[in-house]
């Protein structure tokens, strides 16, 4: 029925809504000075909280302690248990995505929380003071983890229950339309992220792919196809190696460098006549191999 199918997801979303604000408070207590560092730290904490409490706890049915005890007693059965649990909870995650999409994006457009907060301040401690608009910057620590969680659910269920994917595509299309409007017309830009969230999003995608591969191992095991299960293990190894390669190849690009340090580096490059060489290296780093000019060995001819 509608109550038993929709109400659990609505209650879960209601409780989860306050988690990002609690995490940003913890990030402030951690001693981060810059606002971007607070948002990044809170974003990471919120994502793993959602993965643990929304994804894994929703998969565990029955007695939680018994499930955990059996998993620790027989660790080799974890992929099979994960595959079985994922298969049985497909309907719940469909309703979760629908609830998060329809109700969440509606609340994002209406902004009732900020409106109530501004009204409360106007009639209490800010009464009589000059009124300021309640417009804030884009809350990355709240938006990015929820989108990453839905992406994780979609990647895991792409193999187990592909019927969930159309709902996920609708969720992303609706979210794209909503946040284009919010970014352009509602939120103000208080600082530039300079792409600092990309390493985190890349890490979340890798986590989702590994979970999907573990689920595939368990799914093939449930279907009594051990050869197919063993064939997934090299995929996990390749995924982990690819993640390490990306860390070595691209992660240093996201290290923060002050403007003064960048200017000093440019001055040193000009002094050593390495400016053009470094510019070419930067261009090559962001140029896919398929778009690079072919080296036909004509230089010596």
Automatic annotation (TrEMBL):
<keyword id="KW-0472">Membrane</keyword>
<feature type="transmembrane region" description="Helical">
    <location>
        <begin position="93"/>
        <end position="117"/>
    </location>
</feature>
<feature type="transmembrane region" description="Helical">
    <location>
        <begin position="14"/>
        <end position="33"/>
    </location>
</feature>
<protein>
    <submittedName>
        <fullName>Putative membrane protein C2G11.09</fullName>
    </submittedName>
</protein>
<feature type="transmembrane region" description="Helical">
    <location>
        <begin position="201"/>
        <end position="222"/>
    </location>
</feature>
<dbReference type="GO" id="GO:0005227">
    <property type="term" value="F:calcium-activated cation channel activity"/>
</dbReference>
<feature type="transmembrane region" description="Helical">
    <location>
        <begin position="138"/>
        <end position="157"/>
    </location>
</feature>
<feature type="transmembrane region" description="Helical">
    <location>
        <begin position="228"/>
        <end position="246"/>
    </location>
</feature>
<keyword id="KW-1133">Transmembrane helix</keyword>
<dbReference type="Pfam" id="PF02714">
    <property type="entry name" value="RSN1_7TM"/>
</dbReference>
<feature type="transmembrane region" description="Helical">
    <location>
        <begin position="45"/>
        <end position="65"/>
    </location>
</feature>
<dbReference type="InterPro" id="IPR003864">
    <property type="entry name" value="CSC1/OSCA1-like_7TM"/>
</dbReference>
<dbReference type="InterPro" id="IPR045122">
    <property type="entry name" value="Csc1-like"/>
</dbReference>
<feature type="domain" description="CSC1/OSCA1-like 7TM region">
    <location>
        <begin position="1"/>
        <end position="220"/>
    </location>
</feature>
<keyword id="KW-0812">Transmembrane</keyword>
<feature type="transmembrane region" description="Helical">
    <location>
        <begin position="163"/>
        <end position="180"/>
    </location>
</feature>
<dbReference type="GO" id="GO:0016020">
    <property type="term" value="C:membrane"/>
</dbReference>
């Amino acid at each position: 029925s509608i109550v038993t199918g929709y109400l659990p997801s609505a209650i879960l979303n209601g409780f989860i809504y306050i988690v990002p604000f609690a995490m940003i408070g913890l990030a402030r207590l951690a001693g981060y000075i810059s606002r971007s560092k607070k948002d990044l730290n809170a974003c990471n904490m919120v994502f793993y909280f959602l993965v643990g409490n929304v994804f894994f706890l929703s998969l565990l049915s029955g007695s939680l302690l018994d499930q955990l005890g059996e998993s620790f007693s027989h660790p080799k059965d974890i992929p099979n248990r994960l595959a079985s649990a994922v298969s049985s909870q497909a309907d719940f995650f469909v309703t979760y995505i629908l609830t998060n999409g329809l109700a969440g994006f509606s609340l994002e457009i209406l902004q009732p929380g900020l409106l109530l907060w501004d009204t409360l301040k106007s009639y209490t401690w800010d009464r009589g003071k000059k009124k300021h608009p309640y417009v804030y910057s884009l809350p990355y620590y709240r938006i990015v983890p929820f989108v990453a969680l839905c992406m994780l659910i979609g990647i895991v269920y792409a193999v187990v229950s592909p019927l969930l994917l159309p709902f996920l595509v609708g969720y992303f299309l609706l979210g794209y339309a909503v946040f284009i409007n919010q970014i352009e017309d509602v939120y103000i830009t208080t600082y530039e992220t300079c792409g600092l969230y990309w390493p985190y999003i890349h890490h979340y995608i890798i986590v989702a792919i590994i979970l999907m591969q573990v689920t595939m191992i368990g799914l093939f095991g449930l279907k009594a196809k051990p050869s197919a299960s063993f064939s997934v293990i090299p995929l996990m190894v390749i995924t982990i190696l690819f993640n390490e390669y990306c860390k070595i190849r691209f992660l240093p690009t996201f290290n923060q460098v002050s403007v003064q340090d960048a200017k000093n580096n440019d001055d040193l490059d000009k002094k050593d006549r390495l400016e053009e060489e470094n510019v070419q290296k930067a261009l090559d780093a962001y140029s896919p191999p398929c778009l690079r000019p072919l080296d036909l060995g004509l230089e010596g001819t």
